[in-house]
């Protein structure tokens, strides 16, 4: 549900820009037949229902169509990327970052609340539309059929079309023969153009995107262009000499309460003043006007339906962007009073590559850089940062930045930054564990390394804390499978990943141990409690006996993640 909601937000943001562009384009097409303005709303509909598009050099989109990243809820520094610097800066400064010791990211709470409100709004609109449709249908049961799908009924003040599968035209009995001919022709054109399907479908899309006021404006303007273009079609088919009498018919029908008002499955007369003005001013357009309008609408549709061609960024491009963000954070800090006037990359090296963690190849690049302040004597050095020949180093209390990338085909994708001080990047298994922690943090991997059987073992520390081990069978399930400590939790609820002491891949390391056990060596690996006591005494440096262990069998990772009770 989170991904769907964020995708709807992205589509909504993109469609908002398209709506503004179409509104401006309608002004430029003011002298052209209204069918062209009506056609432009198809671009808005496309952006509101289609989660993907195609890249084109003719794109008119100035913004990123994936403004809100799908992993924003789990990011340590949540940011949006609209492509418009001013918007990004204003929005990103207001986004809440996760607080230390809090179980849920504030963005997770806000997004969950937004999802609930969004679903409630959809349900309310659908229930309301269903209620009005049923009520109108019951009210129209006494209507008298004149011929074909045309009905007449006392009590209605204006004509309208109602129905989706079998649309019917409903007329008031007060119409003269001339008025009836114009009105019936108008409604028949609606049916011929499938407007009776287009409007309910557009309303359904509106229900999904109801929280955006621009979508409501687009819906009403689309209705207006639908009616205006239909009026022009009537005049084109019946001749310009009917304009005055047709206008008079609309004026006479504009008084009184409309029967179909509020029902999205029906549509009738609205915007009488605008329609009459458009009818009286309508002239058959010159051929060149039609050609220019067709070219303009086609160009606008292609430009707004396609995404801009994305420049293929390199690792170095992403590294420079990362440095720019660090400079911005440094200069905006309250304790700093200097400006960074220059920067340079001193080392950018790929240190690891894995194809066994997520669905695509993953690379880790180590980054070192220097920052040049305008006055080194005033520069404040945060924890870990040093000064070398007038330049500030990138060192911090978290270590050095490790940039993580994946590949989508031949296109590189920046996933984020891990820090060398928080993880062991000196061995292959350490790098693999660091990436797994990183991917779990952004929601690309589940919070368990191995599926199958699990055991939670509780053990006490001398300080009274109750810690937990989460044990799994990494190779074979059942009595013949070895056990390993996958992760452990201290008395404060902080979870640590257990990294095997090897320079090989973790999977290869455990396969070798399984083979040794199958050959009769290291049989203690088949006993989870022996594995637990070995890890506690050797890896954690604690002195605990088997009698102090409290095992829980056949558990899930959710059971392990419960905050421990300490004494």
UniProtKB/TrEMBL annotation:
Q: Which domain of life is it from?
A: Bacteria
Cross-referenced Pfam families: Peptidase_M56
Is Transmembrane helix among the key words of this record?
yes
InterPro entries named in the record: Beta-lactam_resp_regulator, Peptidase_M56
Q: Does the keyword Ligase apply?
A: no
CDD domains from the UniProt entry? M56_BlaR1_MecR1_like
**Start and end of every Peptidase M56 domain?**
7-279
- For this UniProt entry, which segments traverse the membrane? 6-28, 35-54, 116-134, 201-222, 286-305
Q: Which key words tag this protein in UniProt?
A: Membrane, Transmembrane, Transmembrane helix
Protein name per Swiss-Prot or TrEMBL: M56 family metallopeptidase
Source organism per entry reads Lutispora saccharofermentans
